Amino acid sequence: MKLKELESCLQQVDAFEEPKLFLEQYPTSPHIAACMIYTIHNTFDDIENKLVADLGCGCGVLSIGAAMLDAGLCVGFDIDDDALATFKMNTEELELTNTDIIQCDVCNLEPAALTKRFDTVIMNPPFGTKHNKGMDMLFLKTALNMARTSVYSLHKTATREHIQKKASDWKVKMEVVAAELRYDLPASYKFHKKKSVDIEVDFMRFSIS
Ligand SMILES: C[S@@+](CC[C@H](N)C(=O)[O-])C[C@H]1O[C@@H](n2cnc3c(N)ncnc32)[C@H](O)[C@@H]1O
């Protein structure tokens, strides 16, 4: 499948009906999601026939991209039942049979049960910049525990140095696959005075040796 085709399929995926601010429910745009999944597949061969986990999967745009590029199975994990109901509806409408969902708090998973159970972990985690400081790093630590090969994640560009340091403390190789992507936070929250707020994010790859 071509990149443009994947992006246009992902444009059909429904996003959060009533996004919950405390869960940082801002969806990955179809453009960024398609670029991420396409690169993970074409450059790193980490999607096709792989067991993939999507942490904080929300309505499933990343999982659906992975499923469309022939993941063996992509399992989405999210704390929010409403988001998972939309995920389920999205996958049913697209007649995908290689996805599954687990409702859970990603920060409180039983670590031993999931250690190295997935080939690849993909995610756009909560950025952890409000009441939930450090949430992005909790997601990353969990993802690195679950993956056998690699973790792909979006993080605020402003946190790049901190993440690089953590990765080296954890003896994991981190590379920035695409830097300073414009991530458009829709004005779905009352405190946003403008229509949308742009922030810069990096698409990162962590490889486990
Ligand atoms: C930035 S959104 C990304 C959603 C989706 N992956 C996407 O790319 O559009 C973060 C997601 O993390 C979920 N989330 C927040 N805290 C969580 C937690 N403790 N455990 C599991 N999921 C959580 C939210 O419900 C939300 O769906």
Topology:
Blueprint: H1 3-10, H2 30-42, E1 51-55, H3 61-68, E2 73-78, H4 81-93, E3 99-103, H5 111-114, E4 118-123, H6 135-146, E5 147-156, H7 160-169, E6 173-186, E7 196-207
Parallel strand pairs: 1-2, 1-4, 2-3, 4-5
Antiparallel strand pairs: 5-7, 6-7
Write up this protein.
- This protein is α/β, with parallel strands linked by helices and 209 residues long.
- It has seven helices and seven strands, in the order ααβαβαβαβαβαββ.
- The protein has helices at residues 3-10, 30-42, 61-68, 81-93, 111-114, 135-146, 160-169, and strands spanning 51-55, 73-78, 99-103, 118-123, 147-156, 173-186, 196-207.
- A seven-stranded mixed sheet has the order 3-2-1-4-5-7-6, sandwiched between helices.
- Strand 4, helix 6 and strand 5 (147-156) form a beta-alpha-beta unit.
- Helix 1 (3-10) crosses helix 2 (30-42) and helix 2 crosses helix 3.
- The longest helix is centred in the first third of the chain and has 13 residues, at 30-42.
- The protein is globular.
- The protein starts with a helix and ends with a strand.
- 41% of the residues are buried.
- The mean pLDDT is 93.
- The structure holds S-adenosylmethionine (SAM).
- S-adenosylmethionine binds next to helix 3.
- S-adenosylmethionine (SAM) binds at residues 23-28, 56-58, 61-62, 78-80, 83, 105-107, 124, 126.
